[in-house]
Structure formats: structure tokens, C-alpha cells
Amino acid sequence: MKKAIFISLLCIGGFTAHAQIPQPDPDTTAQHFLIVASIGNLQEASAGKLAIQKAQLTDVRSFGQMMVKGHTQAQQQLLQLAKKNGYNLPQAATGGIQPDLNLKKAGADFDRLYVHGMLAGHNNTVQTFENYAINGKDPAVKAFAQQMLPTLKAHLAAVKALDEKVKDQVAK
Fold first, then answer.
1. Where is the DUF4142 domain (predicted)?
2. pTM assigned to the model
3. Mean pLDDT by groups of 10 residues along the chain of 172 residues
4. CATH, residue 138
5. Residue 2 lies in a domain
6. How far apart are the two ends of the chain, measured CA to CA in Å?
7. Quick one: CA torsion of 117, 22, 124, 98, rounded to 10 degrees?
């Protein structure tokens, strides 16, 4: 009987753990940080391209354009930094990343889903960059994280404001 209860609790615990929003990884190695940051840049730019095509609201399309421009530039800086400092990033972290399949198929609900995803993503990204800016080991990579933080925080503030607009639009 105790064994059945224990197994049931493990199963329930597994389902609730899966439903939680992933938290930024506290790993402060430069290689790990650069991989996470690179994937984030590519995801933001890729989803931004989709927003330019599919968003209903002009503000959401404009935000998508800002994501493409900002994260493409950040990616170029990141890759230059990685190359200059001898960090080899895996191919999976440097190209070919597509937007979430649910976002591609969102239809009329695209704006809300895109903005919600950008809000969660930028919250995690800011936390990740803040963590490396404080605890990072490589001075050059740490400086990059510190340099990018104001832009990332501006993106977060913009998407928070946009989230309020999208909520208002949905409620009407």
C-alpha cells in the first residue's frame, strides 16, 4: 500500500513539475551562458519574423521587428565574442532554430500567444544575463552580459506594456 501511494505521489509530482515555467539555469560557465544566450537570440529573432508576418496588431508587428533587429545584432556580437575568446558553440546553438509549432499554428490568437511567450522568455533572459553579469567567470563574457542588460530590460518593459494592450484587446 505504501508503495502504491509513493508511486502515485511521484507521478503527480512529475505532472506538476512539467507544468512549471522553466527557471534560468544558474550555471555560470562562459560556454554554457553563450550557448543559452545564442539559442535565445535565435528564438527571439525567428519568432519576431513570424510576428511580422502573422500579427494582427501593428504594435505586435513593430515589436517583432524590434526583436529581429535587436537579437540579430546581439547574435552577431555574441558569435564574434565566442570566436575571439575561443569558445566553440555547437551547431544546434547557432542556427536553424524555428518558432514554436503552436505559435506557427496560432491563427487569430497569434498576438496573445506571441506576446505571452515573449514576456516569459524575456523574464528568463534578463535573469540569466543578470546572473552571469554578477557571477560570471570570464571577464569578456561578463562584460557582454552587462552591456546587453539595458537592451534586454527595455525589451522586457516593452513586452510588458504590449501584454497589457493584448489583454485589453482580448477582453473587448
1. 29-162
2. 0.78
3. 42 41 61 92 91 93 95 95 92 76 76 90 93 94 96 95 79 42
4. 1.20.1260.10
5. no
6. 52
7. -50
